[in-house]
Amino acid sequence: MKHFYPNAECYVVEQHGYEKMAAALATGKPQRIAVADKTILDGINGPETGTRPLNVLLRHGVKALGVTQEEALHGMAMAFASLKLVMEPAGAASLAAVLARKADLAGRTVLVVASGGNVETDIFARALNEP
To answer: How confident is the model at residue 36, as a pLDDT?
Structure first.
């Protein structure tokens, strides 16, 4: 991405309250945190940052954003309603960050990486029935 669009701003999205990569980006050193016991964002709930991924993110000036589980559910609902995509909560985290305006993106072209459809039916139903 940065090769073709060197001025692009890039973000990594984590679960709010468990932002290990944000801490690693701030300190320049890998971080280890306690993971959330019960979370629908299990796909992005690992306990530590790796040295190599951190170095890549630092080299490209990547910033970190945090989303709540409720925001992820909203991202899932919007992905299905607007795009007919079935997303798992962690896969919808980046879309959730955009929808929740976690960064000032007004008037800008935005690319969202949304991946993963490994979602339990009860969680997907919860997303679709969210207020």
So the answer is: 87
